[in-house]
Amino acid sequence: MALNKTQIAQRIAQELQHNWYVNLGIGIPTLVANYIPKGIDIEFQSENGLLGMGPFPIEGTEDADLINAGKQTVTILQGGSLFDSAMSFAMIRGQHVQLTVLGAMEVAQNGDISNWKIPGRMVKGMGGAMDLVASADNIIVAMMHTNKRGESKLLKKCSLPLTGVGCVKKVVTNLAVLDVVEDGFKLLERAPGVTVEEIKNATEGNLIIDGEIPEMDL
Q: Which domains does the chain have, with CATH numbers?
């Protein structure tokens, strides 16, 4: 059974390590803050100027002035801080963030990512994604494996305008967990009930299968 968006976020949360500073992009990545593993401390950073971001607020307790980069209301943990965009991007460009989690429309087998523009559609701007992919050493993409037409989003080469080149290290989709390696997408885990053959059929890029592929442990 393919994962839903919440389950994708839960699986990505397993990648978090104690005392990391983590930037969460718009979309599925924002859900990761709800699933921090027990026993570790994480500082979530939002590019609009927030450090110490917590999970989404309980309905009825929202503060309209406290939002993430996607303009969703969030919470701030004890010791958290607010600051301007200049300081936020100084943190990002200065490589003070250990992990960046982004959504994407396409990822290529060499680690290229397209996540900001579909030609012909109005967009507000590229946001901070290009700074993030240019500065971060550890980028995980959270996305659906295929688009609404059933076409693969894990490609040999991106067809949409690029956000970054050769920067993605890992992809977690509704079907699988994959590392981006020199020769393509290396399959690490499959969603519960999803077969390797289904993942192969949904992946246009080169899929590397080495031995028995375990199911994700959610």
A: 5-208 (3.40.1080.10)
Taking CA atoms, 2 is separated from 14, 39, 56, 70, 172, in Å, by 18, 29, 24, 25, 12
Q: Which residues are catalytic?
A: 47
Residue type, 29: P
Report the distance separating Cα 152 and Cα 81, nearest Å: 40
Q: Quick one: the chain helix, strand, coil %, rounded to 5?
A: 15, 30, 55
Distance of CA 187 to the CA centre of its chain: 17
pLDDT band at residue 69, thresholds of 50, 70 and 90?
confident
* pLDDT, tens digit (0-9, with 9 covering 90-100), for 117-135: 777 666 666 667 888 888 8
Residue ranges of alpha helices (H) inside 33-148 are 85-93, 129-135
Q: Alpha carbon of 42 to those of 15, 19, 37, 45: distances in Å? A: 11, 5, 10, 10
Distance CA 179, CA 172 (A): 9
Structure tokens at 64: 């309209």
